[in-house]
Write a structure and sequence with these properties.
This protein is an all-alpha fold. Helix content is 70%, strand content 0%. It holds the Pfam family Mito_carr.
Length: 210
């Protein structure tokens, strides 16, 4: 994700961020494209959903078994739910990467952080807040994706049809649509903070080799 974003910055001739601001159309395009590429890993999410689905617990024992069984239904079966993943990844990447640097700079500008820790804290807090907020915003897409992917060799339903089905199934309640979001928020808060801060550490450490 980070590497692809950096590569697309170069390909699109974006002023590299950092040190330049990432809040530009060029950086948004780079982030959008990185999200599309990331969606190519859809088969991994597909297998994960099947392994987690209760109705398949007695059928599948490991990842390899799922991959081998899906093979008999063709390549398309690996990419069930692909349209939703593309939408989620491309849009979430666009928001994350365009807002990451401006938010980090605002955090550092508060001048309440020791200078030696500014970069680390800025990266962690910006990553945490954006990761948790964006994953919460797009949480319903994850619900739709999971419903689409928890099937094998069944008719391919339109994402909007699935959403309407879930919406009615959950009594047209926004709260019901977001069931379990607090766990997702907590996980994202920690995971994205660590991921973003580690990326910042490695980038600063390797900057002398660029």
């Amino acid at each position: 994700m980070y590497g692809l974003y950096d590569e697309f910055q170069i390909t699109l001739n974006c002023p590299h961020s950092p040190p330049n601001s990432s809040f530009t159309l060029c950086h948004a395009q780079a982030a959008f494209l990185s999200g599309i590429c990331e969606a190519m890993l859809c088969p991994l999410e597909r297998v994960q959903v099947l392994l987690q689905a209760t109705k398949f617990h007695s059928r599948y024992k490991n990842t390899l078994q799922v991959f081998m069984e899906l093979k008999q239904y063709g390549l398309k079966e690996y990419y069930r739910g692909f349209s939703v993943i593309i939408a989620r990844n491309s849009l979430s990447n666009t928001l994350f990467f365009t807002l990451r640097e401006p938010l980090k700079n605002r955090i550092i500008e508060t001048k309440r952080i020791p200078e030696s820790a500014q970069q680390l804290v800025g990266d962690f807090v910006a990553g945490s807040l954006l990761g948790a907020s964006i994953s919460t915003l797009f949480y319903p897409l994850g619900v739709v994706k999971n419903h689409m992917q928890a099937k094998i060799n069944k008719p391919y339903d339109n994402a909007f049809h699935i959403f309407r089905h879930i919406w009615h199934l959950r009594d047209r309640s926004i709260r019901a649509l977001y069931l379990g979001v607090h766990l997702n928020f907590t996980r994202s808060l920690v995971a994205w903070g660590i991921t973003n801060s580690m990326y910042g550490i490695l980038r600063r450490a390797l900057s002398t080799f660029e």
